[in-house]
């Protein structure tokens, strides 16, 4: 049985308004239930690639298809409801009045019933140890608390694909452990960027290495060549 890719990029390039190049000439296929790690030095295009693959950015050149669709004004909202994105900086994500409202924002948009939302709120606030801050505004939280709220707010509605941009940056060891365990138990497709090779090794079987906006290596975690990483300056 031939499995079709969930997300494809063909000849994709993106140039920011200031003229800087985010990515160039990207060809990529991501398949259902894959665990893909994207690594590379700062400025290599990792975050830009995630934003393109998740339909948050439109390519300057080339084509991205998500669930077989080219994102446009008619379908992009439905596409995004099936995708979760964890940003490197939680302040780019959090906007609701309280942590509770943040966790329930998408479930409400999806018109889940009150009992289902109550159970989900209880489950995820307990898992991420958020019970005591549910009524707090997100802007008053610490950096680690914001990250936990952001990740819980994505996982709570069980998207088919989750993109995580440096999910363990600026979090303590306990939060890191929670994130890793939740992602291990998650049943969908995962695409993750990280400067922490350990988390890539724990969560991903496939690794994409980027440098200067291009994919320079697409391999398995077992075949990753440490010499290549050192030469490009990834770690």
Task: Explain what this protein looks like in three dimensions.
With 235 residues, the protein is α/β, with parallel strands linked by helices. 34% of the residues lie in helices and 24% in strands. It has eight helices and nine strands. The strands form two sheets. It has a six-stranded mixed beta sheet, with helices on both faces. A hairpin with a 5-residue loop joins strand 1 and strand 2. Helix 3 runs parallel beside helix 5. The longest helix is centred in the middle third of the chain and has 14 residues. The radius of gyration is 18 Å and the shape is globular. The mean pLDDT is 90.
Give a brief rundown of this model.
The protein is of the alpha/beta class.
Stretches where pLDDT is under 50 for at least 5 consecutive residues are none
Number of helices: 8
Instruction: Determine the structural class based on helices, strands and strand pairing.
Output: alpha/beta
List the quaternary state of the chains: single chain
Radius of gyration from CA coordinates: 18 Å
Sketch the major β-sheet: 6 strands, mixed
N-to-C CA distance: 39 Å
Q: Beta fraction of the residues?
A: 15-25%
Task: Provide the helix percentage.
Answer: 25-40%
Task: Write the element-wise H/E pattern from the N-terminal end onward.
Answer: EEEHEHEHHHEHEHEEH
Topology overview:
Blueprint: E1 7-15, E2 21-30, E3 35-39, H1 46-53, E4 61-66, H2 76-81, E5 83-86, H3 99-109, H4 114-127, H5 143-155, E6 161-165, H6 173-185, E7 189-193, H7 197-203, E8 206-211, E9 214-220, H8 226-232
Parallel strand pairs: 3-7, 3-8, 5-6, 6-7
Antiparallel strand pairs: 1-2, 1-4, 8-9
């Amino acid at each position: 049985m031939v499995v079709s890719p969930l997300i494809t990029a063909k000849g994709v390039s993106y140039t920011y308004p200031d003229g800087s190049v985010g990515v160039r000439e990207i060809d990529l296929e991501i398949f259902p239930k894959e665990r893909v790690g994207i690594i590379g030095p700062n400025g290599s295009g990792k975050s830009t690639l995630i934003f393109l693959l998740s339909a948050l950015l439109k390519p300057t050149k080339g084509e991205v298809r998500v669930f077989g669709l080219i994102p446009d004004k008619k379908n992009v909202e439905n596409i995004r409801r099936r995708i979760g994105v964890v940003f490197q900086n939680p302040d780019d994500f959090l906007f609701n009045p309280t942590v509770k409202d943040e966790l329930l924002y998408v479930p409400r948009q999806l018109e889940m019933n009150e009992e289902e939302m109550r159970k989900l709120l209880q489950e995820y606030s307990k898992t991420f140890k958020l019970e005591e801050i549910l009524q707090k505004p997100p802007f008053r939280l610490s950096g680690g608390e914001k990250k936990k709220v952001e990740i819980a707010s994505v996982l709570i509605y069980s998207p088919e694909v989750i993109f995580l941009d440096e999910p363990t940056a600026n979090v303590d060891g306990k939060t890191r452990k929670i994130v890793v365990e939740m992602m291990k138990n998650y049943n969908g497709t995962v695409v993750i960027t990280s400067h922490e090779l350990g988390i890539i090794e724990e969560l991903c079987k496939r690794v994409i290495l980027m440098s200067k906006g291009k994919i320079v290596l697409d391999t398995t975690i077992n075949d990753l060549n440490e010499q290549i990483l050192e030469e490009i300056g990834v770690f």
